[in-house]
Amino acid sequence: MKIAVIALGKIGLPLAVQFAGKGHQVVGVDVNQRTVDLVNTGTEPFPGEAELQERMGALVASGALRATTDYADAVPGADAVVLVVPLFVDDEARPDFGWMDAATRSLGEHLTPGTLVSYETTLPVGTTRTRWKPMLEETSGLIEGTDFHVVFSPERVLTGRVFADLRKYPKLIGAFDAAGASRATEFYEAVLDFDDRPELDRPNGVWDLGSAEAAELAKLAETTYRDVNIGLANQFARFAADNGIDIYQVIEASNSQPYSHIHRPGIAVGGHCIPVYPRLYLWNDPAATVVRAAREANAEMPSYAVALLEGAHGDLAGQTVVVLGAAYRGGVKETAFSGVFGTVSALTERGAHVLVHDPLYSDEELSALGFVPYHTGTPADAAVIQADHAEYRTISAVDLPGVRTVIDGRAISQADRWDGATYRVIGKP
């Protein structure tokens, strides 16, 4: 098949590589010329994705994969077009469709009969039917269901392990008719491999959910569940700490029973998914009080962590406080909705002199994010562990001379590493 992948980001590029690796001709489209140039030289444009560099380099060299900024080069004659363009929401939970609108219109202008169009970007329920389908028909002059087919098929992978997740999880699809569902099933069966999952109620593979709306809701539901679960864990953690209880022991004990799956509490919920998709759900269902309360509880955690620090350390005005970790989670160079922003803001409001450290970011990159870089070995009064980088499992008072108080927002360190300092963990007394 000839396949076009629109947007070569941290999900789109691995998808393009996966498709090309199954013997298909793949053209990736991206608005960023630098990304396109790097892909065409066989160089990954972002670090940290397992297997990506090796796979991509070989496929580019063989001619199976290339990139362009030109939709007219990639879309006409394609058997399938997969869009993984980012969608964002504002603080009021309103989706910003700007990038996806532009991509959809550009796609429609060059769409040819016989193409399957698959949207993989997470969307509010109903968006594929009410926004993308008519927009494609308007710009192309073609009729969905007759001249081409549209399907929604959410990505269900985590950056850093995309190829493993593509094999592990069923591929969900939702189309507008049986013919579209059949085309989507054939396509994804031809570009993906699936691990044996005997614990599933039906075989791992492509699962047709019967409608685009059902597939849209499935992605929102699975991600919103995680946010609500973490919100509950954070509420438990705050209560436990106030009452002299170690919440991690409680969670371990509770989860030994097969119907309990309590997640871990922490200083923040970050990334492009968990903080965002509950807001997309709320856009559809503003009366969802449980979802709203969990999102608010999780958003408050950076301020809660700083309040813990203030309670243990004393007045923070004029104190040098280091935030360890700019990334939203360990081992991933990404700051989308990272807890670093709320933590730095809360510390600054209290008059602290705030520095930020992250082993994945250079001083220039931290400065570009608006932070003052910190170098280990430099004196500091206090620290907050914001990201669970592997490097922070072994960091100690030796690395932060003079540190008197440490708040561990990820429960990854140990008190004995902070000799002479007060060490507190969210969720522990």
What key phrases describe this protein's structure?
five-stranded parallel sheet; eight-stranded mixed sheet; single chain; alpha/beta
- Write out the strand line-up for the largest beta sheet, numbering strands in chain order: 3-2-1-4-7-8-9-10
The proportion of residues in beta strands is: 5-15%
Task: Calculate Rg over CA atoms.
Answer: 23 Å
- Helix-residue proportion: 25-40%
Treating each run of at least 4 consecutive H or I residues as one helix, how many helices? Answer: 15
Which class do the helix and strand fractions yield? alpha/beta
How would you state the average pLDDT, rounded?
96
Principal-axes geometry comes out as: globular
Order of helices and strands: EHEHHEHEEEHEHEHEHEHHHHHEHEHEEE
Low-confidence stretches: none
Task: Give the tally of β-strands.
Answer: 15
Give a short account of the largest sheet: 8 strands, mixed
Terminal CA distance: 59 Å
